[in-house]
């Protein structure tokens, strides 16, 4: 059909890049979500005024471009703190906080969407704050927050392409290396896009499946 | 016995309760009537400690509700409350709605909790709906489920806060029948209601609240037949 210099070994090289993308995303989304839940609950419990310092801190991660965060964090660790930290660790650390900042907002919105009257009914049955959180608020807020959270996870997956600036060779960087060598940019980008799609698709479908399972109407 | 002594309560500058005194004996059914904003619903949420009070005391079986040392979670196990909005837990089936608190709060095993829940749900006429989700129930059924959910904790007291106010007129009857049944079984109840016929039929005593004050309390025959306070008279004339 058409000629390409792409070899099987190159495809393995791309797959390794995709593996790195998945690894960085999985670690960052996992840590970021746990932190996000913690920050979100703290924000709801403390109220807007008392949680202002936390909100301000998280806003920094939401408003400064990720590329700048990565470069500055890397420079800070190496040049200021003189720590021997791998680019991979810096990438996961920054992306985790970036995820946490957005996730905290999603969690806060989810908790706020659980009607106060429903929570009052739970407390009236003798449930403690923790029991109310665990058996009523958590399941209901999760259902509300899930679509936004899936969107966040997919976004972080694509944003993880930027971690090449701290010398992590993920999917897009791998593709660029091949483009430089093979000089077939459009074909390689097509394959790269297909890889991204293959990573995203199951997550999006999984979200759809959960949404369907949780609706009783 | 529920003892309410000189209770005052405000929301900001708004004084909602201005010195309420009321004692409800075991087995007694007291209904509270009055216009909106008279403080009657607030009183119920003060009795189970959902709302703090400014001054005065509320004692439930000798335990002071608003004392610092009172374990409210424990106290509330003994005081069921059902609200105007039925507040089903939408992610749980009817049976799970009712078993949740007995299992998690009282630590009762699954099988036993389900037996208790089934008994209560049959009692309120929902025996066929155990595995249904609340969104598939009518308002009247959801409200009866809320009643079964409170009863499954085997409370000594039940508080009802305008439980029929949010229901379609044709669904009010089934919920009032459930309340009547409980009253006949000897449950100690305080019912805030706008259903005058119900108040007349089931109450041992009827209290009329007006602007944060209990203007009048007495037997239903007296309150409805020969009201003493001019405000009671005006109110009853307006709702007839």
TrEMBL record, chain A:
Gene3D superfamilies: MetI-like (1.10.3720.10). One of its GO terms (molecular function) is L-cystine transmembrane transporter activity. It holds the Pfam family BPD_transp_1. Its main location: membrane. It comes from the Bacteria. The chain crosses the membrane at residues 20-42, 54-77, 135-157, 186-204. It is a multi-pass membrane protein. GO terms for cellular component: ATP-binding cassette (ABC) transporter complex. Keywords: Amino-acid transport, Cell membrane, Membrane, Transmembrane, Transmembrane helix, Transport. It is found in: Cell inner membrane; Cell membrane. InterPro entries: AA_ABC_transptr_permease_3TM, ArtM/GltK/GlnP/TcyL/YhdX-like, MetI-like, MetI-like_sf. Residues 18-199 form the ABC transmembrane type-1 domain. Belongs to the binding-protein-dependent transport system permease family. HisMQ subfamily. This is Amino acid ABC transporter membrane protein 2 (PAAT family). It comes from Gemmobacter caeni.
From TrEMBL, chain B:
It comes from the Bacteria. One of its GO terms (molecular function) is ATP hydrolysis activity. The keyword Cell membrane applies. Its main location: membrane. SMART domains: AAA. GO terms for cellular component: plasma membrane. It is found in: Cell membrane. InterPro entries: AAA+_ATPase, ABC_ATPase_HisP-typ, ABC_transporter-like_ATP-bd, ABC_transporter-like_CS, MetN_ABC_transporter-like, P-loop_NTPase. Signal peptide: none annotated. Residues 2-236 form the ABC transporter domain. Keywords: Amino-acid transport, ATP-binding, Cell membrane, Membrane, Nucleotide-binding, Transport. Pfam families: ABC_tran. The keyword Iron does not apply. It is a peripheral membrane protein. Coiled coil: none annotated. CDD domains: ABC_HisP_GlnQ (cd03262). Belongs to the ABC transporter superfamily. This is Amino acid ABC transporter ATP-binding protein (PAAT family). It comes from Gemmobacter caeni.
């Amino acid at each position: 059909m058409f000629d390409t210099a792409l070899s099987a070994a190159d495809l393995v090289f791309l797959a390794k890049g995709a593996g790195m993308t998945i690894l960085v995303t999985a670690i960052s989304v996992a840590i970021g979500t746990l932190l996000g839940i913690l920050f979100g609950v703290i924000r709801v419990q403390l109220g807007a005024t008392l949680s202002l310092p936390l909100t301000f801190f998280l806003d920094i991660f939401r408003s400064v471009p990720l590329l700048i965060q990565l470069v500055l964090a890397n420079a800070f660790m190496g040049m200021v703190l003189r720590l021997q930290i791998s680019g991979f660790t810096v990438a996961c650390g920054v992306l985790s906080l970036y995820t946490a900042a957005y996730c905290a907002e999603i969690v806060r919105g989810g908790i706020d969407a659980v009607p106060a009257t429903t929570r009052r009914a739970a407390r009236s049955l003798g449930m403690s704050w923790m029991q109310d959180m665990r058996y009523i608020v958590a399941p209901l807020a999760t259902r509300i927050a899930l679509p936004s959270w899936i969107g966040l996870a997919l976004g972080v997956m694509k944003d993880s392409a930027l971690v090449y600036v701290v010398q992590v060779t993920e999917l897009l960087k791998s593709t660029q290396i091949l483009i430089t060598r093979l000089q077939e940019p459009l074909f390689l980008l097509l394959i790269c896009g297909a890889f991204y799609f293959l990573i995203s698709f199951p997550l999006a479908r999984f979200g759809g499946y959960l949404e369907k399972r949780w609706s009783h109407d | 016995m529920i003892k309410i002594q000189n209770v005052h309560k405000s929301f900001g500058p708004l004084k909602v309760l201005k010195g309420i005194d009321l004692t409800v004996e075991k087995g007694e059914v007291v209904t509270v009537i009055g216009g909106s904003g008279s403080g009657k619903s607030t009183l119920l949420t003060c009795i189970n400690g959902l709302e703090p009070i400014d001054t005065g005391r509320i004692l439930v079986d000798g335990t002071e509700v608003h004392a610092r040392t009172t374990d409210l979670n424990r106290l509330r196990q003994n005081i069921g409350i059902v609200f105007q909005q039925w507040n089903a837990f939408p992610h749980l089936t009817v049976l799970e709605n009712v078993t949740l608190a007995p299992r998690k709060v009282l630590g009762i095993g699954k099988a036993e909790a389900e037996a208790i829940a089934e008994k209560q749900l049959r009692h309120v006429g929902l025996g066929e709906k155990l595995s249904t989700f609340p969104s598939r129930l009518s308002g009247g059924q959801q409200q009866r489920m809320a009643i079964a959910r409170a009863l499954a904790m085997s409370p000594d007291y039940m508080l009802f806060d305008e439980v029929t106010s949010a229901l379609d007129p044709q669904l009010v009857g089934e919920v009032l029948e459930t309340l009547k049944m409980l009253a006949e079984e000897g449950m100690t109840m305080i019912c805030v209601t706008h259903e005058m016929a119900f108040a007349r039929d089931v109450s041992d005593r009827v209290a009329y609240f007006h602007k944060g004050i209990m203007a009048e309390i007495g037997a239903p025959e007296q309150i409805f037949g020969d009201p003493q306070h001019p405000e009671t008279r005006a109110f009853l004339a307006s709702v007839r």
